[in-house]
Amino acid sequence: MALEVDNHDRIWGKLADEAIFQTIATKPQAKMKNRNVKGTVYRLKMAGSFVLTDDYCLGFIHPSERDQEPRLGQHVDARVIGISSHGALNLSLKPRAYEAIGEDAQQIMALLEHSLDQRLALTDKSDPDEIRAVLGISKGQFKRAIGHLMKAGLVKQQDGYTQLISDDHE
To answer: Cα–Cα distance between 49 and 8 in angstroms, integer?
Structure first.
């Protein structure tokens, strides 16, 4: 950030431009892939969010790799999913697949517990668009979460529904 004084002796902060970030950035190493990094969002664009990591590497978060857009200046915890051809880290704010099972499974359990008949009109055979519309997750995430719940003996799939298994709903 640079400070400027205008004609009325007011002090204004001006955001650093891309050239400054390119100058202070270090080149990422290939071993960073799948590592967690912390960084600060320095630019927001329609294409995604640009981040400067605490190690001074440039990073980019595509909109598909986040649930909500971070604020300008927000400190984020991200995961390196790749290194682009122009030397920036490709980052994701979403959890790894095995970490997301718990959250997705909890969401499905909450829906089942709060529905009147403790059923959900989705199964592992449901259309991916329908799953995304109802739960906001991919079909793969849904199948992993349902598999986890079925293995734990909490739900069953029958007649096009996923149903909560309980003593009074067997």
So the answer is: 34
Phi and psi torsions of 168, nearest 5°: -95, 0
CATH fold, domain 97-169, is Arc Repressor Mutant, subunit A (1.10.10)
Every domain of the chain and the residues it spans: 2-92, 97-169
Residues belonging to the chain: 170
Residues 6+ apart with CB under 8 A from 19: none
Round the average pLDDT of the chain to a whole number and report it.
89
Residues 40-54 pLDDT 10s: 999 999 999 999 999
DSSP 74-108: -EEEEEEEEE-TTS-EEEE-SPPHHHHHHHHHHHH
